[in-house]
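thread: overnight batch results

M.L. [08:02]
morning all. the overnight job finished for the chain we discussed friday. pasting input first so we're all looking at the same thing
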Amino acid sequence: MSQITENVRALLAELPAGVEIVAAAKTKTPAEIIEAVEAGIRIIGQNYVQEAQAAFAAVGRRCAWNFIGHLQTNKARKAVEIFDMIETVDSIELAREIDKRAAASGRDMAILLEITAARRSRRRAFSRTRRKPFLGPWLPCLMSAYKGS
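M.L. [08:03]
and the structure it wrote out:
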């Protein structure tokens, strides 16, 4: 048994029910990703759209794909084609571009917004002042989706 298979199986055995792992596959080969999926990984996280394209071509939909890096607006179209979720939406402009590209592809795209709690932050994220105008009209929908209603 390879080290990847051994590590994945050991990690999965320790997890409580209902907990999922997003396996970050930055710099991993498609063969290594396939091995992790065959060992039980259900969600692959990729930092770069270009890297994900090559891996996705080999692995396909054997697993879910999450984008976990900083997504540039000009890469949104490709990201929507590959990923099931984009975890790092840090601007209104990016959210709108993803929505536009997803609609054009006939897909619903799950996203997570990056929101900083700090008053001053160097991280790319929605700030305390920018998040309220953006989220305000969506909060009832977001809460319904979160609660599963």
